[in-house]
Amino acid sequence: MLSAIELARDLEAGRTTVDRIFDACAEAIAEKEGIIRAFTALDLDAARLAAAEGRGPLAGLPFAVKDNIDTADLPTAYGSPIYAGHRPAADAAIVAQAKRLGAGIVGKTVTTEFAFFKPGPTRNPVKPSHTPGGSSSGSAAGIAAGFFALAIGTQTGGSVVRPAAFCGIAGFKPSYGILPPVGLKIFSWSLDTLGVFGKGVADAAFGAAALSGRDWRVDRQMPAAPHFALVRTHLWHEASGEMRVALENTARLAEKAGAKVSEVTLPAVFSDAFAAHQVIQDFEAALALGHEFDRRVAELSPILRETLAAGRAIEAADYDAARKTAAEAKLALKDLFQDFDAILTPSAPGTAPEGLGSTGSSIFNRVWTLMGVPAVNVPGVISAQGMPLGIQVVGARDEDHKALMAAKWLEEAIAKAD
Amino acid sequence: MLSAIELARDLEAGRTTVDRIFDACAEAIAEKEGIIRAFTALDLDAARLAAAEGRGPLAGLPFAVKDNIDTADLPTAYGSPIYAGHRPAADAAIVAQAKRLGAGIVGKTVTTEFAFFKPGPTRNPVKPSHTPGGSSSGSAAGIAAGFFALAIGTQTGGSVVRPAAFCGIAGFKPSYGILPPVGLKIFSWSLDTLGVFGKGVADAAFGAAALSGRDWRVDRQMPAAPHFALVRTHLWHEASGEMRVALENTARLAEKAGAKVSEVTLPAVFSDAFAAHQVIQDFEAALALGHEFDRRVAELSPILRETLAAGRAIEAADYDAARKTAAEAKLALKDLFQDFDAILTPSAPGTAPEGLGSTGSSIFNRVWTLMGVPAVNVPGVISAQGMPLGIQVVGARDEDHKALMAAKWLEEAIAKAD
């Protein structure tokens, strides 16, 4: 894997060159892309040139873009045959920003169909018989396979945190609305949030800091031991045995390493909010993909077709009630965060499921996306079968740096405990 | 002017036909479009056909779309030479929705450059030497000229309420996030809001009710006399003498007609929020139009170029502080609305300015857009020179029907007082 932050430091110190970095990418891609299939489009030469000419905090770095995000120089198909070969008129705002910061856009990465359920062909680099997770499948798998140093994806349910968990890398979904959602193929405008993938928490934070213009880096000071809330959620019974053990062990090792850990049971409004997430997502998706549903329905997958039909049947009053529930849960969460720094909770029900028929479940992510709060997958815990078990650190809204610091602290505590 | 609600009733009762409606549009366009120049694209034949085949609450109605909103069947240039002849791959969500509801999309209407400052060629039907307002210039002017019965636009500062005020029609900007912002050319993702134009308040409410799937119609029951808060704002000195008199007279006639009117002075956080609006707008615009600024800068107007450069110079910390100010003002406004039903305030500093060099000022609209609250231009007050003076009715967030009812009540009170 390529660490963005180490590459940036090595470039600055003259210990490496853009050509050597891109040679390493080319080698990894030549070796593994035939199996992994992370890309929908690839232009290493253009990326190498742009990265070499780049001036800015991401100069010289290979960077990949999920294919539900518009690029003017690379085809953008949104994971749907409807848009095969589509070339948007403009770069999405986040892509223009990455270019301006000096990154070289290596290619577009596989998304599920419109970033919803139907998987693409991507395999998990840890174990290719398993899903890499989704919907940002190619961005997460490509980081894990060493194809690029940074990648962006989007999260509507759990599409950043879950694939990061399954691939054993860091994934960071910032607070809603900070990274510009302009030029995404919107699925749900109240939920869709851009996120950043990197090898470790410091790498994802480094990329997100540059892209957001915020002071979000976590590699310049040693994070203090945080006060964690251990949150099992009302879906604890849906977590696998090894995930339950992993989270409890992580809480214990955090305590040993000096953190305070309090068990917190979320108030009932959060299980209501969990249900509200689906109402909001489906209602908005039916509107957002109205054109495709009305004019290209035969080219949609059955699962998407059913979801859009169900979304169209939701009454506006039920959608409005769901938005109200979400607003109440947000207030309750703000209050809860008075007492601790970050939440410790699973990133997914367990390790990456076998097979490519599903990208796994987002049940442990949805409510945090709805709350608009920062969420980080912390890598490092490995199952007995050698598969990553993702630990999720969730912060208070607009306290992204604090969340990242807590995640970085935990990542180090996990690494030291090994 | 064509009243959407009267046309819908007449169609239902068999008192008119789709052909007769579209003949009237064709006649008005043939007579006046040479002067008014509301359209960037026009396809009356396709619209007539679609409207005749339409099934739904907007069936048979001629409907126009501001040209910063994507249409798959009509060119979409966003008011910029960069996108001359551009044909989006999909209809915006709101366009797909309008078609599904039976409307016939007559054409695209003139927007200022990317819905910002630089005016298009549109003239005010009330007095063609004057601006129709902006940025939704063509949508407002086309309603006033009788070219179509309903139109949509967008508001980032005052781009729905102000042109409606200048053209003497109704303009309704619903609560933020209710109408789907998917397929708009985003200028500021925290502010951009779709709005609806019609001849009178009941027409705009009828269109918005259909498009939103909400029970927002105001023509089925007599609205009760509301409790208005008369809000002069800290910008009162910027209102023209005739606007000040108009607002005060309107408050008095509302009282005479049975409304309660209380003078309310907004807390200081609202003048801070007024300043925050520009910080948020410019910071986000610089990101949203990053592609155009980096790659097509020579094709941007000088004013937009300067604004984007200034936006790029805003520190993220100042943007975050502005968002915080906005959040505080929202809470304060929610509290204020405990005491009354709707705010009565100017829609614009005065009547439409002479000339086409500027579309006028949005200073009386910006803070309400930032608050995400519903805002309605109520037509009916006319200056000594025969120009419309818009009265703005502002409601509480997500209380759109209440705002529309208050606006409808006021519109009738003004009409009766004449």
UniProtKB/TrEMBL annotation, chains A, B:
GO terms for molecular function: catalytic activity. Pfam families: Amidase. Residues 43-402 form the Amidase domain. PANTHER family: GLUTAMYL-TRNA(GLN) AMIDOTRANSFERASE SUBUNIT A (PTHR11895:SF151), TRANSAMIDASE (PTHR11895). Belongs to the amidase family. This is Amidase. It comes from Stappia albiluteola.
